[in-house]
Amino acid sequence: MQEDTNDAETILSAQKSKTAKKSAKINEKEEISELAKTVIIALLLALVIRTFLYEPFNIPSGSMLPTLKVGDYLFVSKTAYGYSRHSFPFGMASFDGRVMDGVESNKPKRGDVAVFKLPTNTSVDYIKRIVGLPGERVQVIAGRLYIDGERVEREVVGLHQEVGSNYRNHTVTEYLETLPGGIVHRIYEVSDNENLDNTKEYIVPEGHYFMMGDNRDNSQDSRVQSLVGYVPYENFVGRADILFFSIDDKAKLFLPWTWFKAVRFNRIFDKISPVRPEGT
Predict the structure, then answer these.
(1) Which of 37, 54, 95, 130 lies in the 20 to 30 Å Cα band around 113?
(2) Are 95 and 245 in contact (CB under 8 A)?
(3) Residue of 128, 219, 222, 246 marked catalytic
């Protein structure tokens, strides 16, 4: 009788063990399923935010110094100018022009720093400042910017040492430039006699914009017609609004203790827009 009881307990114990294992497997599958759902939702949410609201970009070159430095990370507003086929990742959309670009006041403004698709190669993103508007005449004479025949005023701020494309320090002059409409921003000039300091007069076509880098003598921009030229409105990805992170070249990938010191904390959350008169 005792043996029968022991056998029954053994069978019951084995059944409980099997049930527990099945239950553990079910729980494990449920956890994996929930994790997969969470990851998918997070990816979809990130895709929606990136496509319709804000897209992150980083700055790989010094063409927008002193406004943007190499190692800056910024958010570009996708709602600022509405949406074109270039607003969507992976070539998901296929239509011409822009949609939902709102009222006239939401169109690209002079002085905006904007990300756009390079007209000669739309797989490449560029970031420059809007200097010339549709229908305007733009020219550089002896290093000075002219818009519709009027010379743009600038004021010397001081001298700075910057690292050039050859990784050698060189001296640049910083100016405060005042664009038409009283829009003030900073620029760098090596001198007033560099490669792009004397140009022909450019007439900006309708539906296009003339873009220039703030580092005037180290920028491939609309002055280089064979590469950039006039930028179509539909090529705009969005307006650069705010920095969310910045790190200099002192950080070494395999030396984690260098990371913290390399962060430019004083640049985080800096706004990128120029100084505009009140009400504009």
Answers:
(1) 95
(2) no
(3) 128
